[in-house]
Amino acid sequence: MPKITLLFASLHVLLMLVMVARISIHRHGQKIGLGDGGDAVLARKVRVHGNFIEHAPLALLMLGLLELCSVPVRWVWVLGSLLLLGRALHAAGLSRSAGYSVGRFWGTAITWLALLCMALAGIWVALA
């Protein structure tokens, strides 16, 4: 049973709920139904959530498959931790600025590193 992945998936869901709550609160406060209503702050909050949704599901699937294929537990922990750190940094960085930010840069870099490592580990395991 992939309990490590279950933990990281659960933590990612909590992070996602923070993102969608921020969107809902902003929508309610500004009385914006669909779209962003031309509100740049809401558009950025929606983009933070969108970027998360573009990366987290496949990454968590990869993590779970690696865990099910008996990749060493320490690597599952490291990859899951990198993924969560990367997604949190990216969300924080993009939430503060639509332009360059340290959080956005390192969040992207760490997420991509985790994805690359998971992809290479998956290829290694599949061909072994």
Name a few traits of the molecule.
single chain, 128 residues, mainly alpha, Four Helix Bundle (Hemerythrin (Met), subunit A), 4 helices, 84% helix, elongated
Brief synopsis:
This protein is an all-alpha fold and 128 residues long.
Category by helix and strand content? mainly alpha
Give the class-level CATH name: Mainly Alpha
Average residue-wise pLDDT: 96
Number of domains: 1
Report the sheet-strand fraction: under 5%
> Care to count the β-strands?
0
Q: What is the CATH third-level topology name?
A: Four Helix Bundle (Hemerythrin (Met), subunit A)
The amount of helix comes to over 70%
Order of SSEs, N→C? Answer: HHHH
CATH superfamily: Membrane associated eicosanoid/glutathione metabolism-like domain
Q: Which stretches of 5+ consecutive residues score pLDDT under 50?
A: none
Oligomeric state of shown chains:
single chain
Radius of gyration: 16 Å
Number of helices: 4
Overall, the morphology is elongated
Summarize the structure in words.
This protein is mostly helical and about 130 residues long. The protein has one domain (about 5-125): Four Helix Bundle (Hemerythrin (Met), subunit A), CATH 1.20.120.550. About 85% of the residues lie in helices and about 0% in strands. The chain has 4 helices and no strands. The longest helix is centred in the middle third of the chain and has 29 residues, at about 40-70. It starts with a helix and ends with a helix.
